[in-house]
User: Which sequence fits this backbone?
């Protein structure tokens, strides 16, 4: 398998970055993950736009045209995969040990791996840790995922497949790699970006395509009490939630979730780069 590192393609067993790379030593980096179906990445323009925004938030420079070249070449070298997961990573590059950056250029890595089919529903567990909606990295897709690793392991130990975070004021925020939608009084709502959640690409498209979803703060307890709810992400699209902390929701998928899934399926087929 071929991957891109810095300026050109390499065999995966020859693809290396420095042990002094700031992304490795302190998690100083940003990334995007896109779904690829038969060699075509979905919503790649939106992913690149968010990559640039996240990089800007960390003070890193990203050349979108260079990233497009790298993506194109990686996809061309790995076109036999029917379903794949494309990962674009930009880090602070070679730097001194510690938080200060060096003067090296950022490291660009584009890699691809086989995708997986997600189960038809998800069980989620609310974890005891919170997202800080006022953090310097709130809303940025950074490589600092240690909180997510710990939370997801906690959820797995509880028999769940995804972990759900509240924020510092007790409102629902997001999952480790997902946004969340739920029914409140017969209407779909999703936490606003001010909650500290990531501005997901799938989330944004659903808001546009459905047109009647409210972005409102809801207490974390609202998820357990919802008649129906679902997760969204770039690889799972829309996944109904079956249970929250072991409590089975009334329907999965419910009628609002099913409508969202139907709209998604149609609009996704219409345009691979909406």
Assistant:
């Amino acid at each position: 398998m071929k991957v891109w590192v810095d300026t050109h393609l390499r065999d995966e067993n020859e693809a290396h970055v420095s042990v002094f790379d700031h992304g490795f030593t302190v998690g100083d980096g940003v990334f995007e993950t896109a779904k690829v179906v038969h060699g075509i990445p979905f919503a790649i323009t939106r992913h690149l736009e968010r990559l640039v925004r996240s990089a800007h938030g960390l003070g890193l420079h990203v050349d979108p045209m260079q990233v497009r070249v790298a993506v194109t070449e990686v996809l061309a070298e790995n076109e036999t995969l029917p379903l794949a997961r494309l990962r674009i990573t930009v880090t602070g590059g070679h730097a001194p040990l510690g938080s200060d950056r060096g003067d090296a250029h950022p490291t660009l890595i584009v890699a691809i791996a086989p995708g997986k089919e997600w189960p038809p529903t998800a069980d989620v567990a609310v974890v005891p840790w919170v997202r800080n909606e006022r953090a310097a990295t709130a809303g940025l897709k950074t490589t600092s995922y240690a909180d997510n690793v710990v939370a997801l392991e906690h959820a797995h130990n509880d028999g769940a497949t995804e972990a759900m975070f509240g924020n510092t004021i007790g409102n629902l925020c997001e999952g480790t790699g997902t946004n969340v939608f739920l029914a409140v009084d017969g209407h779909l709502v999703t936490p606003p970006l001010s909650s500290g959640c990531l501005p997901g690409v799938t989330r944004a498209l659903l808001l546009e395509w459905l047109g009647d979803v409210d972005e409102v703060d809801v207490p974390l307890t609202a998820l357990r009490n919802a008649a129906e709810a679902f997760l969204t992400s770039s690889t799972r699209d829309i996944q109904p939630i079956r249970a929250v902390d072991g409590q089975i929701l009334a329907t999965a998928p419910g009628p609002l979730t099913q409508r969202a899934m139907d709209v998604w399926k149609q609009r996704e087929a219409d345009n691979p780069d909406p």
